[in-house]
Amino acid sequence: MQFEIDKKQIDYSMEIIDIREYDSYQEEHIDKAIWVPLQKIISTPYTVLDKNKKYLVYCDKGHLSFKVCNILRNQGYQVWNLIGGYENWKEK
């Protein structure tokens, strides 16, 4: 199943999760994105995610968030990875 989304396909009704370092999130992030610590989303996803909701997850370049999405999908969460991560999203 395809679980990657290009920046042109972002559905802003999805919850957007930034898993980059907190300083990077504070500096700038995608509108409406919430910051979730990487360790928390991997070790205790049930504390921040709902299996009935859809999420877009991103990191700096999309590699780490791709791995995180694989892990979460195997646990039954509806998550999509942002292709190219934040660096790709901010390019116009």
What does this structure look like?
The protein is of the alpha/beta class and 92 residues long. It has one domain (4-90): Rhodanese-like domain (Oxidized Rhodanese, domain 1, 3-Layer(aba) Sandwich), CATH 3.40.250.10. The chain is 33% helix and 20% strand. Helix 3 (63-74) links the parallel strand 4 (54-58) and strand 5. The longest helix is centred in the last third of the chain and has 12 residues, at 63-74. The radius of gyration is 12 Å and the shape is globular. The N and C termini lie far apart (28 Å). The mean pLDDT is 94.
Question: Concise description?
Answer:
33% of the residues lie in helices and 20% in strands. It is α/β, with parallel strands linked by helices and 92 residues long. Strands 1-5-4-2-3 form a 5-stranded parallel β-sheet.
Q: Notable features of this structure?
A:
alpha/beta; 5 strands; Oxidized Rhodanese, domain 1; single chain; 92 residues; 5-stranded parallel β-sheet; 33% helix
